[in-house]
Design goal:
The structure is a homodimer of 357-residue chains. By secondary structure, chain A is an alpha/beta fold. Chain A has 12 helices and 13 strands. The two termini of chain A are 48 Å apart. At the A-B interface, helix 4, helix 5, strand 2, helix 10 and helix 11 of A face helix 4, helix 5, strand 2, helix 10 and helix 11 of B.
Chain lengths: 357, 357
DNA sequence: TTGTAAGCGTTATCAG
DNA sequence: CTGATAACGCTTACAA
């Protein structure tokens, strides 16, 4: 391994000077700098990150705690995180799938000293206490968690509003017998979507509308199974809202396999608006979520919390969602792909800032 | 920040002893250990990773260089990498989207000292020289790169064979006018799939079969556009092979929008077998690839290269692919979802091991 | 503008 | 079984 010492020797300067050249931290004579740069280039030297973070106590890396789930939504979030982080020259250390609190603790602990802050995603309430503890070691930003922590920023999605809008939409289309395929237990996005959908129905007056709730876990196959369950019931719903697009695809696959036509025989709606949604057959009516943007925001909030001048300010951002009406629910939406987006009526991106002390 | 010193003082022992307790590196008296554990617990101490890797010159982390592309395939690969790494208590430092060689170099350099090895994915040939240079700093495993580097393990997919099988399948179904939607320029997977498909057609005797090649970039929308291009041509193909499933979805969306039925009016096939493929309408005939498994293999190869006893051995693994015949090409495949998989005829997972010296 | 040297939090060697 | 102490590679006062 070639160290700063080697470069210093080769260039005939002290290690301090080499360091200054690489950090542009102080003026260095042009000629000296040149010697250093040349020597470093020849030796193929680059500063050791671990040593650097030990002295500066800054790692220029952020940790990302992902949920067990995967698929396009999370892949988009990571992309957003990665891009935003790279722009500020930060690296990202990711860790996913934590079976329980112990694994989660282990994962975060092992990041100790390697990250300047943490983005924690889609944790359930039981993890709140753990996160609160981590917070003493470094700043944290919460993403899609149901809980908030005082002094900690968070980003999330207007799940409730999006699902509410979808409920209203389906009701407006004249559906009375509705069903929802729920997401995984303990998942906040899933719970909020359920709440929002229920609310739309309650508001419509329960007597006139029925709602069947079927379990799901955000996977296509769980959507497929949910459809089978629904078809077994004596009175089949006329519209099914899946708590995410993957399950909606599973639903549509199952209905088609049973010879039902979507939307003529049964309407299907999803949530997330994954890239494929507009190309499905039929194109999927869903709730648009900007996952990429959400990832970027999480990074920006985290970086802001590193900055001493804004350190004590905390923000709670809720990203707007909006209905995207396509053909899977049978409304007369435009036929062409790629032109159907329209702003939703209620959900607005929201930012609440609090300054402590 | 609480350090090993604090714990040592609190427990009335030396830092060496605390270190021994945390590393289980040497026998420590049960009572002493207890004192240390209690003190550490009370202070909420955990070793600093940077300091640790500085002394041990091991970071217990692996770097992952991702391509600009995204979507389910890569998200699956990462999942596979993450799981395998976590099993061995390794962390992963990811970096994606490198516009050019300079960005790539910068990304890898900044990992210096923070990773024990690197998984480099889907790089084009121009990056081969860069990687060769990195190799002097730490072991590298190549994933889905066209090139090989002596002394470096690699994992890839039987793209050629998969596409060849698909070509044969379409020909066997009686198609004479074929089209392929290609993947991004410089992408090896895309190039191999093109080669394999061409080969199947050449083998069939060029005179009888025509092949139109349309550009694409692995995105749904590029598939959509490709379909529009194809439909403008005077003699429309009877079957279109998309170099990945996302583009196949775009194709199907476009054909349906134009009032064509798949597969009755035109057959569509894909590559990758993403989770959704079997639930699409119609279910997509495609080539199955185990992305998750590929990620895991890359990790295992990398970890093997850390082990001094196997250090000098190098493996080249090619993961088998196999045709998954569903309904988008009109063959009489089973109607039910989830039961259609069958092993391909040619592609076999392959492992070539070389021991140097 | 440059060099000296202390120190960042660990681990590992060597005595005891 | 335990403790001193010298690294590890770098940054950063402080001096020159």
């Amino acid at each position: 391994m070639v160290t700063i010492r080697d470069v210093a020797d080769a260039a005939g300067v002290s290690t301090a000077t080499v360091s200054r050249v690489f950090n542009e931290s102080a003026r260095v004579d042009a000629a000296t700098r040149k010697r250093v740069v040349v020597a470093a280039g020849r030796l193929n030297y680059w500063p050791n990150g671990a040593a650097r973070s030990l002295t500066t106590s800054r790692s220029h890396a952020i940790g990302v705690l992902l949920p067990d789930l995967f698929g396009e939504f999370f892949s988009e979030v990571i992309r957003g995180i990665d891009q935003a982080a790279r722009r500020e020259r930060y690296q990202i250390l990711v860790s996913s799938s934590h079976a329980d609190g112990n694994e989660l603790t282990a994962a975060v602990r092992s990041m100790n000293g390697r990250i300047d802050g943490l983005i924690a995603m889609a944790l359930d309430k039981r993890s709140a206490e753990l996160i609160r503890r981590f917070r003493q070691s470094f700043p944290v930003v919460l993403m899609n968690t149901g809980f908030r922590i005082r002094g900690t920023s968070s980003v999330s999605i207007a799940n409730f509003e999006g699902a509410f809008d979808m409920g209203r939409h389906l009701l407006k289309l004249g559906h009375h017998r509705l069903a929802i395929v729920k997401g995984p237990e303990g998942n906040t996005d899933a719970e909020e979507r359920l709440r929002g959908f229920r609310k739309a129905i309650e508001d419509a007056g329960r007597a006139r509308v029925s709602l069947v709730e079927v379990p799901g876990d955000f996977s296509e196959s769980s959507g497929y199974r949910a459809a089978q369950t629904l078809l077994k019931a004596r009175s089949r719903p006329t519209a099914v809202f899946a708590a995410n697009d993957y399950m909606a695809v599973g639903l549509m696959g199952a209905f088609r396999a049973e010879g039902l036509r979507v939307p003529d025989d049964i309407a299907v709606a999803g949530f997330d608006d994954i890239g494929m949604a507009q190309y499905l057959n039929p194109p999927l009516t869903t709730v648009h979520v900007d996952a990429y943007e959400e990832g970027g925001r999480a990074v920006r909030l985290l970086l802001a919390s590193f900055d001493p001048s804004t350190k004590s300010s905390t923000a709670t951002e809720v990203l707007a969602t909006h209905l995207v009406i396509r053909r899977s629910c049978g409304s007369r939406a435009p036929f062409e792909a790629g032109v159907e987006r329209r702003p939703g009526s209620r959900a607005r991106t929201t930012r609440k800032e609090e300054v402590h002390r």
